[in-house]
Amino acid sequence: MSIAHGFRTIGVLGAGQMGLGIAYVASLRAKVPVYLVDKSPVQIQKSLSLMDKLLAKDVSKGKLSEQEAKDARQRITVVPEEQGIEGLKDVDLVVEVSNLNCAGYELTEGGQAATENVNIKMSLFESLAAAVRPDTILATNTSSISITKMAAAAIPKGETAASPKGKASAARVVGLHFFNPVPVMKLVELIPALQTSQETLDRARAFAVACGKEVTASKDVPGFISNALLMPFINEAIMCLEKEIGTRDDIDKTLKLGMNHPMGPLQLADLYVPALGIRRTDDELGEALDWIRVYQSSKFCIKAPAIPSTGLACFWREWWTLAGSVRRAARGSMITKSNNNKCGLSVAVISQCTVQHRT
Fold first, then answer.
1. Domain boundaries defined on the chain
2. pLDDT by residue (tens digit) across 91-116?
3. What is the pLDDT of residues 302-340, one digit of tens each?
4. How many Å apart are CA 145 and CA 222, to the nearest integer?
5. Got the DSSP string for 155-213?
6. Which one of 22, 34, 253, 272 counts the least CB within 10 Å of its CB?
7. What's the CA gap between 349 and 179, in Å, rounded?
8. Active site residues
9. 175, 193, 12: which is closest to 99 by C-alpha?
């Protein structure tokens, strides 16, 4: 058992890029055995192959000895597909990752965005709470879903939030928001649910520190600290582009050279794929969006039906598909009409909405 965090074993639910990264730092830095769960054997093999490459790269650079790399790799155990989450019944900590494709929770739209769904997450945490020991900590890597809702889902059937068993089960749920790429990024956001116990917080923090991360604490609000700040930042950059205040490249260059940012906001938005947050905001707030100020759509915008009370309409424009910049790809399909067809939402919506919703 590690003296640093007290976890003898952990489970990582989801073997995509984030899940692999968390498994990597847990096995290498925290030196804790990791049980990796994913429904896709192909994804498992891709992740293990990538981990081997990462370890070999660190060895070649002199960051690790061959023995350290070998030990880290041997700490990773793949849970057989037929076991699913039942294979985590004896671990001390489970970290659920957004791009999971396991235990019968299928992706319907491909990629990470499809699984940032509150109903899927709550159903999953209900199953997890029943599958693992009562003292197992349940952590989620979500960047947008309420930790409090997932904690409520962890209350056993037949129990209430006020009953001793119900209260204890909800108290073990916590947010551990790692950043991509996990082996490189130094930050983890620690987010308590309203029900989370201090013991759970302390142990989760100790685990993140043992993984070599700096930890910041955030209340359980939309976007936490990181995205509550990031979304308005990206939003204003898009507004500048929409109003033709500056070109795409000049907006990015201004922030990179003038403010010492490693990359510009529009380049960052390309990497971040904000449709995930957009969808989550619309699902959560619905008609609460009708007070939001949005710059009038330009002739470049493909308009969608607007909210009747405001005329709020589609805001995104062709900056997604402009050519000539690294990683600029056609992503118009990522910004789609909302589920109830109110409007084609944009980053402008989530940023303003997040600020209002958390006050």
1. 10-217, 227-357
2. 999 999 965 444 444 433 333 333 67
3. 333 333 333 333 333 322 222 222 233 323 333 332 333
4. 7
5. SPTT--TTSHHHHHHHTTEEEEEE-SSTTT--EEEEEE-TT--HHHHHHHHHHHHHTT-
6. 253
7. 23
8. 143, 177, 189, 227
9. 12
